[in-house]
Amino acid sequence: MSDVMSTLRPLVARVSQHPVDDIAADTRFIGLGRWGSLAAMRLLAAVEQTYGVQLDLRSYMKLETVGGLADEITQYLSATSGTHAR
Q: ∠60-30-48 over CA atoms, to 5°?
């Protein structure tokens, strides 16, 4: 499991109020019960605070899985390595 996934899973679990053991790379956000735009925005804020990234909102809202979000975070971090994200 990547470092991003190991810290992202608890964030998703906290926002979605699901057990962390139920969160995997292939977990679909829509499958997290009452997942909606408010939960998505809470997760985005938690991701930005935790990783120091600022993801594109349109791209973020198109993501369907936790693994897809982890990939976006990883790409952002790779692209900004050696520079300050914020």
A: 30
Please report how the helices 66-79 and 3-16 are oriented relative to each other, as an axis angle in degrees rounded to 10. 130
Contact present, 15 and 42 (Cβ < 8 Å): yes
Structure tokens, 27:
């977990």
- pTM attached to this predicted model: 0.88
Name the nearest CA neighbour of 24 among 42, 43, 40, 1.
Answer: 1
Q: Are 4 and 73 in contact (CB under 8 A)?
A: yes
Give 33's pLDDT tier (boundaries 50, 70, 90): confident
Q: What whole-number percentage of the chain has pLDDT above 90?
A: 83
Residue keyed to tokens 């971090």? 77
Evaluate whether 19 touches 41 at the Cβ level (below 8 Å). Answer: no
Residue 84 CA to residue 62 CA, distance in Å, equals 26
Q: What is the pLDDT of residue 80?
A: 84
